[in-house]
Specification:
The complex is a heterodimer of chains A (about 650) and B (about 350). Chain A is an alpha+beta fold. Chain A has 22 helices and twelve strands. The chains are: A alpha+beta (about 650), B mainly alpha (about 350). The interface between A and B is medium-sized, with 15 and 15 residues.
Chain lengths: ~650, ~350
């Protein structure tokens, strides 16, 4: 079912808009339209411009929110807008403080780490570094030599060179150390060191005391900084944790206020020289809500509401939005309808039809008491716990699967446990004139399909009458003409197959010929009824029209045939299900009367129900969309989107 | 006993291969030929090259192509021996095959440093061999345009470390990279020899490589003093950090000598000066090959069932290819047979 909608225009003093939104619109679901474009013919309107005051606070709170670990677990408490904003400001101030502490520590760490790294290599020099650097007659250089060169240096050169090399740290690749040379011979000896690939390391003159002391004090400070940083991080973490509820509550409150505030974007303002500016909001409400709303504002002097029954002008955007309202049982099937497209407001909601035909056809194709029961229970379980619509559909289909299981007498593939109430799809045969011997289920499937197609044509006619579409009411292949033609064909086939006499040739010609002629001439006839100027379509006049119409008619006839045969699949799957289970039983060794292998039976059942369930599910959906929906359903509706979700009260 | 068993097959194989090596008499015949095609045709008739060169038309061969084919024959012989060897012998061969890797890496680095737009190194002689005996990705390496790129691609390979260390030095030159590879290879051999080998094999490898390193060091010192007049500290930096028979003090006094005569006097007193009385300091370079060959031949004669046989054959094979290359060059440029023979002998 599609809910009846009312178009409302709400107006009042500009400054009053927030009160109205908070007191009334949060109680009733309303689909707001952009007032400015809806009322475009009223010239003296201007957009309602005001900057959202919550934006800044929201982006601030979002930053906190992102850092929370599992925000879903905390339920927000309600806050007023002022409370929320001041909470955010407090949080921000505290967070800034922590960040600046951290920044200061990080800076200090950065300035400390470089000298520390250098001095670490030379920590065993038991002398004041600053004094070393100030020697006048002795030069010293700190640095490192690659190990292999150091070995050569020690082996061949060191003892004959006027230098003292003090080895400090020995790493994997380098030997660190400091060498002293008399200033007189500096350049010569520097050159020797350079030949041995000595790399100088410049020591900044900022160390206090001996290298060991300097290193120790720097290291102490270094670890202190790390501790402080860790503490700072912990404080931040704790701060976030402690204020999690505040953050979440403020976020929820602000988002709510912000959304409500944004109602202005859809509102319009009257223009006025004086101060009395009014806002206008317009939108759709369900009939029930609209009545309650009217009653609610009856005593409010500053709110005025106009309610329109039928919309005076027929602009495209004025088509009311669609809101489906179906019994709980059919609700899951709304998914399939929405996948195809929402019904237009004045169209018929096909949900109940889909629900019934889908479950029924699925059951017929997948008739097995045991597997159906599993589908039913499994689907129900998932639907209840996970709220999966598809599971609900499977569950409904499972019921019919059980039903047809009894009809076919099939239980987990065992065909002889239950006695079939109706027939065995594999074995039941019948003779038909002209066609020969056929499975009964095939014949029934085709007959069923013919019935369904006829019903769809009737739906199409109803929809067309509702939307006042002449062509689709009378002349289309799915309209009255098509109905008469297809109905006559069906009737003729039934009469022939049951062995009765066909009516006279004249009647047949009228029943087949007239509808075909109407379909052939559908465009000129429509134009004639609508009293248009040109009777033939404007773009192809003359012989071209007849050629095109002829081929279109040909195609229509072909599609009647193919659509009808399409229903064969219903019977085919009923047979194939039984056949596949027979194979499973054969593999399990149950066919010869021996005791079956239960593991094979279970795995086989799982495999067949999974695979066939999937295939049948898809095939039925294809039947629904292609054979049924295409006949009567357009699905070009707009969804009803309430501006505010109803707050739980 | 054990070594006779494990080496008997291989040393027989090697002896058979050795008999096919080109002799000095054959070289003398080659240099008398009138042109490169005739030389190629001559080689095609020798048992060593008859099979593999059979399909090649010598009339269309360029000298460069012949050189490549000769190079490939080294790898072919190596593979033959490798296939025949047992796992212990293969450890030596694996160690030995590094020198081929270093050789091709050096060729590529030379190309990188050569800033003319030279063609990339022709990998065809190497490819097949490297597929089996190396995990260097030659084709990728060959596409590199800069040294950092090249070194980066070697990541994970053993050569990465020595080369990347050089990269840290300021203005590193082609020579430094080549030197780093050689030094890495030499120290590697020296350090792992005790782990990989034992008994007789260890002794022979120690002798062969020890003397080789000493001779190379002597050659370095002599060359850098005589030709380049380098400072002692710079010379020390280049030496192979391995001493075998050449003592530390001897090395130092060689480096510190101020004249050629003084150098010669010091050299006379060393192990090598005493052992090879014919050898003078000035002819070190020419005699390097002679001495090395001498050592290897002696070792392998004294103990045919040892790793020395392998080393000796591989050395001779490379030596043969070197000499053939020279011989063909001489043929190409019409050098007088007597001069040509002198060039060949000195190599």
């Amino acid at each position: 079912m599609i809910e009846k909608m009312k178009f409302l225009s709400i107006t009042g003093p500009k400054t009053d808009i927030d009160r109205v939104v908070n007191t009334y619109l949060s109680k009733y679901e309303i689909h707001l339209e952009n007032a400015l474009s809806e009322l475009s013919e009223v010239a003296a309107l201007s957009p309602f411009l005001e900057i959202n005051p919550y934006k800044e606070s929201i982006s601030a709170v979002d930053r906190f929110y992102e850092e929370l670990e599992n925000p879903q677990n905390i339920t927000p408490v309600s806050m007023t807008a002022e409370q929320a904003i001041s909470t955010i400001q407090n949080l921000q101030a505290r967070a800034d403080e922590l960040t600046s502490t951290r920044k200061r520590l990080e800076d200090e760490h950065a300035s400390l780490i470089e000298p520390l790294k250098i001095i670490r290599h030379f920590r065993n020099i038991n002398f004041k570094i600053s004094d070393l650097l100030k020697f006048q007659y002795i030069q010293c250089r700190f640095g490192r030599i690659e190990k292999e060169y150091f070995q050569k240096f020690e082996k061949y050169i060191y003892h004959s060179l006027d230098t003292i090399f003090i080895k400090c740290e020995e790493g994997e690749r380098y030997v660190y150390g400091v060498y002293f040379i008399p200033a007189k011979e500096a350049s010569k000896i520097h050159a020797v060191y350079a030949s041995m690939h000595f790399e100088q390391i410049y020591l900044p003159d900022q160390y206090h005391g001996t290298a060991a002391e300097a290193c120790e004090s720097l290291e102490k400070r270094h670890s202190e900084i790390h501790a402080e940083l860790a503490a700072c991080k912990e404080a931040q973490q704790k701060f976030l944790q402690d204020s999690a509820r505040d953050i979440i509550s403020a976020k929820a409150a602000l988002e709510q206020y912000s959304t409500r505030f944004d109602v202005r974007r859809l509102a319009a303002c009257t223009k006025s020289k004086t101060d009395d500016v009014f806002y206008i909001l317009c939108g759709w409400m369900s009939e029930k809500d609209a009545a309650a709303f009217q009653k609610d504002i009856a005593n409010d002097v500053s709110v005025f509401c106009l309610m329109g029954d039928d919309m005076p002008d027929t602009k495209a955007s004025m088509q009311p939005p669609t809101r489906l309202k179906n019994p709980k049982l059919f609700k899951p099937f709304e998914m399939y309808v929405k996948m195809y497209g929402l019904p237009a407001y004045n169209e018929m909601d096909p949900t109940w039809f889909v629900a019934i035909t889908y479950s029924f056809i699925f059951g017929a194709m997948f008739g097995d008491v045991g597997q159906g029961l599993i589908l039913f229970l499994g689907g129900l379980f998932l639907y209840k716990t996970r709220k999966m619509d598809l599971a609900g559909i499977i569950s409904c289909a499972g019921v019919f699967s059980v039903f047809f299981g009894f009809m076919y007498g099939s239980f987990f593939g065992f065909e002889d446990v239950l006695k079939p109430i109706w027939l065995k799809p594999m074995n039941a045969m019948m003779n038909l004139p002209l066609v020969g011997r056929l499975n009964v289920v095939f014949v029934v499937a085709i007959a069923f399909g013919m019935g369904i197609i006829l019903i769809c044509m009737i739906f199409n006619i109803i929809n067309a009458i509702r939307s006042k579409d002449v062509e689709r009411t009378w002349f289309d292949s799915n309209a009255a003409a098509g109905l008469v033609f297809y109905g006559s064909v069906v009737a003729a086939i039934v009469l022939f197959m049951t062995g009765r006499k066909l009516p006279g040739t004249a009647i047949l010609i009228i029943m087949f010929g007239v509808p075909l002629l109407l379909m052939f001439l559908k465009e000129p006839l429509t134009n004639l009824v609508n009293k248009e100027k040109d009777i033939l379509p404007a773009d192809n006049k003359g012989p071209m029209f007849f050629v095109q119409s002829f081929f279109e008619l040909f195609e229509v006839l072909l599609s009647y045939l193919s659509n009808t045969l399409s229903f064969l699949r219903v019977g085919a799957f009923a047979v194939s299900h039984a056949a596949m289970m027979e194979v499973v039983l054969m593999l399990a060794g149950a066919a010869n009367g021996g005791s079956p292998n239960w593991i094979v039976i279970i795995l086989g059942n799982l495999f067949v129900s999974a695979m066939e369930g999937l295939i049948v599910g898809i095939q039925v959906l294809r039947l629904e969309y292609y054979e049924l929906f295409s006949r009567f359903y357009h699905g070009n509706g707009r969804e009803f989107r309430p501006f505010l979700k109803k707050t739980a009260e | 006993m054990g070594s006779i068993l494990s080496y008997s097959g291989l040393s027989t194989k090697i002896r058979a291969m050795q008999s096919k090596l080109i002799t000095e008499d054959q070289l003398a015949e080659i240099i008398r030929l009138s042109g490169v095609p005739q030389a190629a045709a001559y080689l095609k008739r020798t048992p060593a090259y008859a099979d593999t060169w059979a399909s090649v038309d010598e009339n269309n061969l360029h000298r460069g192509q012949i050189e490549k084919m000769l190079k490939a024959s080294i790898f072919r012989d190596f593979s033959k021996i490798y296939n025949f060897a047992n796992s212990r012998q293969r450890t030596f061969l694996d160690l030995y095959s590094r020198r081929y890797e270093i050789r091709v890496l050096k060729e590529m680095i030379t190309n990188l440093f050569d800033h003319r737009d030279t063609d990339p190194v022709d990998l065809s002689p190497y490819r097949e061999f490297f597929r089996r005996h190396s995990n260097l990705d030659l084709d990728a390496l060959n596409t590199c345009k800069t040294m950092p790129e090249f070194i980066n691609l070697l990541k994970g390979n053993e050569f990465y470390l020595p080369l990347s260390h050089i990269q840290d030095h300021e203005n590193a030159l082609l020579f430094d990279y080549g030197m780093a590879l050689d030094l890495y290879y030499f120290t590697q051999i020296w350090n792992v020899r005790k782990k990989l080998f034992s008994g007789n094999d260890l002794k022979q490898i120690t002798t062969a490589y020890g003397e080789k390193f000493d001779l190379l060091n002597l050659q370095f010192i002599q060359r850098s003093k005589q030709c380049f007049h380098m400072q002692p500290a710079d010379i020390y930096a280049l030496l192979i950090p391995i001493n075998y028979k050449l003592k530390k003090e001897e090395t130092r006094s060689l480096v510190e000598t101020s004249s050629a005569d003084e150098f010669n006097a010091v050299f006379r007193r060393t192990y090598y000066g005493k052992k090879y009385t014919k050898l003078s300091a000035a002819s070190l370079e020419e005699f390097y090959n002679y001495i090395l060959r001498n050592i290897l031949e002696k070792e392998s004669r004294r103990d045919p069932y040892s790793v020395a046989t392998l080393y000796s054959y591989l050395y001779h094979k490379e030596h043969e290819v070197n000499r053939l290359t020279i011989a063909i060059e001489c043929v190409r440029y019409g050098v007088e047979p007597d001069d040509a023979m002198r060039y060949i002998r000195s190599n």
